[in-house]
Amino acid sequence: MFQVRIIVRGYELDSLGHLNQAVYLQYAEHARWEILRAAKLTQESLLKEGIAPVVLETTIKYRRELRAGDEVDVSCEFRWGDGRTFGMHQEIRKADGTLSAELDGVGGLIDLNTRKLVADPRERWKAITPEPATLGL
Predict the structure, then answer these.
(1) Exposed, middle or buried by CB within 10 Å (0-12, 13-18, 19+), for 91?
(2) Is the predicted pLDDT of residue 1 greater than 90, yes or no?
(3) Residue 70 confidence (pLDDT) above 90
(4) φ and ψ of 135, to 5 deg
(5) What is the CA radius of gyration of the chain?
(6) Which domain holds residue 97?
(7) Where are the extended beta strands (E) located within the chain?
(8) What is the pLDDT of residues 90-125, one digit of tens each?
(9) Which residues pair with 99 in a beta bridge?
């Protein structure tokens, strides 16, 4: 499973000294862009194709708190199905393996010209990704 390591920074904390809830979403977004980069895709290459990934829905389940200095691994796994959308499962785990949060989402690929979701995102990803296995394709 793909993952990226992040160190929790002090300025990301809330008034109680825990990682601010909005930062969990930023960590997840970072991991999603990193998996695309690992598959040899860039924002520029996607724009040249006239498409962009979009997040349509995200659910976060908080399991254990995170504090400044904690090292976390943020995973990213695409879950392919039929239709215009695909699933994304992500976990944020402390370096010792403790599960801190689970994020499940629904994403799509938007055609930047029509401003509509691509009909078959799985096939479109396959067609443009230099290393499709990285995305589970």
Answers:
(1) buried
(2) no
(3) yes
(4) -95, 10
(5) 16
(6) 2-135
(7) 2-7, 51-62, 71-79, 85-94, 99-111, 116-117
(8) 999 999 999 999 999 999 999 999 999 999 999 999
(9) 93
**Which CATH number fits the domain that encloses residue 54?**
3.10.129.10
Asked if 80 and 88 touch (Cβ cutoff 8 Å), the reply is no
- Of the candidates 64, 54, 56, 60, which has an alpha carbon nearest to the alpha carbon of residue 103? 60
User: CA-based angle 78:13:91, to the nearest 5?
Assistant: 20
Structure tokens at 60: 């976060």
Cα dist. 52→63, 69, 77, 88, 124 in Å? Answer: 31, 33, 18, 16, 11
The answer to whether the predicted template modeling score (pTM) of the entire model surpasses 0.85 is yes
Q: Using CA atoms, how far apart are residues 65 and 96, in angstroms rounded to an integer? A: 14
Which of 124, 24, 132, 136 lies closest to 88, judged by CA? 136
Burial class (CB in 10 A: 0-12, 13-18, 19+), 85: middle
Domain count, the chain: 1
Cβ pair 108, 80 in contact under 8 A: no
Cα 48 to Cα 36, 45, 78, 125: the distances in Å are 15, 5, 23, 14
Give catalytic residues, as residue numbers.
14
